[in-house]
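A reminder from the course coordinator: this example appears on the midterm review sheet, so study it carefully.

Given structure:
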C-alpha cells in the first residue's frame, strides 16, 4: 500500500498518517495541542515529537490551556527535567505564553477553532501533489496565520510551523495523489 513518502515503517507513524494527519480537526483543545506540538517539533522531526506525544499529554495536562496558563516556575523546572519531552526552555515557556494568549482569541472569535479555520474560510484546501518535492513548506496563508498569531503574542508559530500545523489539522489536504489516504480523506 502506497503512503506519503515521509512515513516510516513504525506502526505508530503509520497509524498517525492513516488516521490523524490531514483529517479536519475542529476541536479547540485538540487544535491547541497540535499547535503546541508543532512548535515543539521546530528543528526536529515530527517522528521525534510523535514518540513523545503521550508524555506531552500527561505532563501538559492534556493541553488544557487554562491549566497550562497557570504554570509557575516550579512547574517549568519540573518539565525541563523530564526526558519524556523535548527539554527546550524556550519551547516550554512558549507553550505557557501561548496558553495565556489562547483566551484572547477565544474571547474575540468565540472559540479557537473559528479563528484557526478562518484562514481557509472554514473548509480544507485540497491539493493534488504527485511528489513530495511539490509540497510547499510555507504558503501565503501560513504566512498570514503566522503574522496574526505573532501579533497576538504567540511564540514558535513561524510560517513553516503554521503550514505543518495546517497539514496536521486537515486545513490543507496534502496527501500525495498516490497515497492510500488521498481519496479516502476526500469523501
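Designed residues:
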Amino acid at each position: 500500500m502506497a503512503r506519503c513518502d515521509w512515513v516510516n515503517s513504525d506502526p505508530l507513524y503509520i497509524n498517525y498518517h492513516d488516521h490523524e494527519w490531514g483529517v479536519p480537526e475542529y476541536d479547540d483543545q485538540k487544535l491547541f495541542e497540535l499547535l503546541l506540538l508543532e512548535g515543539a517539533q521546530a528543528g526536529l522531526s515530527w517522528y521525534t515529537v510523535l514518540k513523545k506525544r503521550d508524555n506531552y499529554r500527561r505532563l501538559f495536562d492534556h493541553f488544557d490551556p487554562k491549566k497550562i496558563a497557570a504554570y509557575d516556575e516550579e512547574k517549568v523546572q519540573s518539565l525541563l527535567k523530564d526526558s519524556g519531552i523535548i527539554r527546550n526552555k524556550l519551547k516550554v515557556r512558549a507553550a505557557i505564553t501561548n496558553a495565556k494568549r489562547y483566551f484572547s482569541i477565544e474571547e474575540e472569535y468565540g472559540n479557537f477553532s473559528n479563528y484557526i479555520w478562518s484562514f481557509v474560510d472554514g473548509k480544507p484546501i485540497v491539493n493534488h501533489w504527485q511528489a513530495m518535492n511539490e509540497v510547499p513548506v510555507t504558503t501565503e496563508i501560513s504566512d498570514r496565520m503566522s503574522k496574526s498569531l505573532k501579533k497576538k503574542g504567540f511564540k514558535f508559530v513561524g510560517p513553516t510551523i503554521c503550514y505543518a500545523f495546517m497539514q496536521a489539522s486537515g486545513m490543507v489536504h496534502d496527501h500525495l495523489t498516490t497515497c492510500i489516504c488521498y481519496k479516502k480523506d476526500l469523501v
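The CA atoms of residues 59 and 164 lie 23 Å apart. The chain has a mean pLDDT of 96.
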